[in-house]
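Appendix B. Raw example, untouched.
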Amino acid sequence: MRFGRHCAHIILAVAGGIHASALCAIDIVTDSPTPSSAQRQAVIAAPSTGISLHFSQADIRAVLEAIADFSGVNIISTESVTGSLSLRISDVPWERALELVLASRDLDQRRIGDLILVAPRQELLERERQLQAFDAQRAELEPLVSESIQLHYQRAETFRTLLGEQGNRILSKRGVVIADTRTNRVFVQDTAARLVEVRRLVSDTDVPLRQVMIEARIVEAADTFGRNLGARLGINDIANARGRVPGTGGGIRVLPGGGLAGAGGVAGQSGQYDLPTNPLVDPLAAGTAVDSLAQSLLVNLPAAAIRGTAPGAFSLALFDAGLTRFLNLEVTALEADGRGRVVSSPRVIAADQEEAVIEQGTEIPFQLATSSGATAVTFKKATLSLRVRPQITPDNHIIMNLRVNKDSPNFVNVTAFGPPIDTRQIQTQVRIQNGGTVVIGGILTESEQNNRAGVPWLAGLPVVGRLFRSHSQQKDKTELLIFVTPRIVEQGPLVVPTPLPDQPVVPPASALPG
């Protein structure tokens, strides 16, 4: 197909003189037959090449005819399309050129198949209003048809609410819907055109909900290390138990020892020395006697126990031949290293956009004071729980609103009101691919303590100072990680609904309004 343009000057003889006008048109030379209706439809849908037009005071119908010849599309104009216009455009898509021509004369177009109807804009709007009014009047006179629809996956009452809620456009003003919860059917009465839309809605919405298996893994890992070193050093003189005077010296004697209760008891000051051979021991006071060995300690800084485990001890005693004076040394040490891991894995299946909850644990009683002064018992949950609401996206990803709890009672630090509850909780929204695993949260806690206690000045001495001090070191590391893995549950083939009968089923007359 080849396009060209020619201009012709038209001279008209009119009363009062001669009027000359120049008219430019489009020459269309084709090498193929006239396009068919299907070809014209393809021209409308396909992108067009550019058109060049040059008109001066040309009749608008001639311009529309030129565009129709160029595009191969049928353009119909009403009798109201009149007037002239001048334009000069170059290499513009014919659709755009048509819009410009119509806009210049306040015209509009409507496409009907492979035809384009051109008319004034107000005329087209009035025509559409008349058609709508005609359709409304026809709907008021159209006979009603009743139909029974069997639902397979959604509840009949829910579907009835969907059709009959306020402002719904699916049913007409005369339409009625009734739900039978026993058979899970809905009875619909409306025009035939509306029933077609109802059937389409049923086929789109009466489908099984997809399901998701959600597995959460709560991993608690602990790594602890502790080391305690300590010593006890003391001097004990039990010469009085051998019938001698304790201490050293002449008239003024010196008795070294630990606490005054020990040294004083040996010297006979307190009367509470618990050796059986001590004549100063009162039998009635033997139950409250003070341990002389403990009171004789100059340094009493033993290693502490770690998590209930007592430290090891090494002792050394130096004494004279008469067994009256003793130098006692005890070194205690303990090193503890512990590792532990706790894995909790709750699982639950949830329907698409439906909330599911799984919970396991205990309820701990607590006493509360009421306004009347009496006490009441209330229970607090300490549970492992998973609460989730999944949403399956079209690309088979899962969006989940998650809440994971791992609570446990702490019976180590019990108070007068009951044991406290250690809580671990995470609440979040996450998007995960089907079958993928993601860490949705974690808590890492590290603590390190180094404690030192000793006798001033003496504890700082090299080598020997270790006998006058104790040292403890504690390192604790705990880590909490929460993993989530969703998997879409593959389901079997859908239930094929029973074909609708050719003749509509009419519900009982009592079920429909008069």
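End of appendix B.
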